[in-house]
Amino acid sequence: KSSKREWKPLEDHSCTDVPWLLLFILFCVGMGFICGFSIATGAAARLLSGYDSYGNICGQKNVKVEGITNSGLDLTHKKYVFFLDPCNIDLVHQKIKSIALCVSACPRKELKTLADIQKFAENNGSSLCSYELQPSEYTTDPRANKLCPKYPVPESAPIPFFHRCAPVNISCYAKFAEALITFVSDSSVLHRLISGVLTSKEIIMGLCLLSLVLSMILMVIIRYISRLLVGILTILVILGSLGGTGVLWWLYAKQRMSANAVETQIAKDNIQALLIYAISATVFMVILFLIMLVMRKRVALTIALFHVAGKVFIHLPLLVFQPFWTFFVLIVFWTYWIVALLFLGTTGKQLP
């Protein structure tokens, strides 16, 4: 005579998958080692403070690098990166092809001649020419045409947090913007994807909100209609399989009859594709029905699971926000890896 089994929590808890736990611990240790190595050997100041064409980091004292001229300079008072020709952009490698210098101030007005550049250096203490030239030599040294910025020097302002002098008038970036727009326009898949999302953004947001509301309503009523819900879902699966398979065979028959009048390669390809889809749907439907027939005794267990799930969500309503917490944790995790990747990208010697 069988008795009903009494369920109760386990009194003795233990790890159920020790090998995978050890593997996960090794993964965490390796991840911490990579992060520590990148922080210890990287130079994040290169990304934030910027550096010149000689490997010097702006705003700090630098160590001399053998074989590189103008390296190892004390640039404590020169915190901004200035490009001698900021509009000379390499569209292939997407970077500025210009000598970069560390300066103490960005030119806040247009400088039209070498005399204006010299006057700016004398008044503001910010030398816009290469380090080997003194401000007094800007108008007399013949090397000034190569070692000084291309004039007229556009008005610029420092980018917040990144200490780069960027031109206020971005018209010189027209070619770069044109190339970027051309790339987006030529990429048909990307263009269709972006245009489709922008066109349907209200519908997408509305459907997301509707799905959230329906999910919460379903979690409330699932406790009371679990048996009915399982039956409805089973019937919907059966009807959906039958209906989808029937529609595919009907479309195949319709295309087959209409193709007899017009024999084209496109029509033949459509008929062949519909035949493949119809056969695949039929095989899937038969396998699904066999699985449901074999596992029909598990329906009672499914109903019990639905009932327990309903109770859980009633007593723990904050469980609804679990996906949001998961999304937040993933964002933090990827931010961590991006920061570690940036540190790794700045490891090694400072090269011009």
TrEMBL record:
Known function: Choline transporter.
Question: What residue intervals traverse the membrane?
Answer: 20-45, 203-222, 229-251, 271-292, 299-318, 324-344
For whether the record's keyword set contains NAD, the answer is no
One GO CC term, this protein = plasma membrane
Where is this chain's protein located in or outside the cell? Cell membrane; Membrane
What the entry lists under Pfam families is as follows:
Choline_transpo
Q: Which InterPro entries match?
A: Choline_transptr-like
Q: What is the lineage of its organism?
A: Eukaryota, Metazoa, Chordata, Craniata, Vertebrata
The name on file for this protein is Choline transporter-like protein
Keyword Transmembrane on this protein?
Answer: yes
Q: Mention one GO molecular function.
A: choline transmembrane transporter activity
Q: Which UniProt keywords apply?
A: Membrane, Transmembrane, Transmembrane helix
Please report the record's description of how this protein sits within the membrane. Answer: Multi-pass membrane protein
Q: In which family does this protein belong, per the annotation?
A: Belongs to the CTL (choline transporter-like) family.
